[in-house]
Amino acid sequence: MAGMADQMADERDFNQRNIDEFRANGGKVGGQFEGFPLLLLTSTGAKSGQPRVNPVAYFDIDDRIYIVGSSAGRDRDPAWAFNIRAHPEASVEIGTAPAKPVTARELPREERDRVYAVVAERAPGFADYESRTDRVIPVFELVTAT
Fold first, then answer.
1. Residue 43 pLDDT more than 80?
2. Cα(17)–Cα(48) distance, integer angstroms
3. What confidence category does residue 32 fall into, taking pLDDT thresholds of 50, 70 and 90?
């Protein structure tokens, strides 16, 4: 199990570096996220109840914000997906804008398939992720209070 714990620690370090870079550079992050629209999602841990911040790629489609639980094609949804299913109230930081509250809504299959097709067209890596796993990669709309 040490390998799994090391992997989780590495992922936390990686996330923290990206979070710090995002906040220091007005929402811009380099490396594998270079040129990618990224937001910081603060969710509530499904089990811990603690705030969790994750850098997540997002897609603005028809003036709606979508995030995709691709987990780079791994066979398990990312932890943030479990968190927002348990606690849909979250907050997002986009660019230099202050954090704003959102409610995450997981898309039903038909709507998900339509949105995922646009995602895969804009970011072909997501088509690759989908081909690597048997699970249906979830898509969530982040709805801001009006």
1. yes
2. 22
3. low
- For 2-144, CATH number? 2.30.110.10
Tokens found for residue 141: 């709309």
Q: What is the pTM of this model?
A: 0.84
Of 113 and 7, which is predicted with more confidence?
A: 113
What is the structure's pLDDT at 113?
A: 97
Q: Residue 8: helix, strand or coil by DSSP?
A: helix
Burial label, 146 (beta-carbon count in 10 A; 0-12, 13-18, 19+)? exposed
Distance CA 79, CA 52 (A): 9
Between CA 73 and CA 16, with CA 50 as vertex, the angle to 5 degrees is: 55
- Which of 72 and 76 is assigned the larger pLDDT? 76
Contact 86, 46 (CB under 8 A): yes
Residue boundaries of the structural domains of the chain: 2-144
Cα–Cα–Cα angle for 56, 57, 63, rounded to 5 degrees: 115
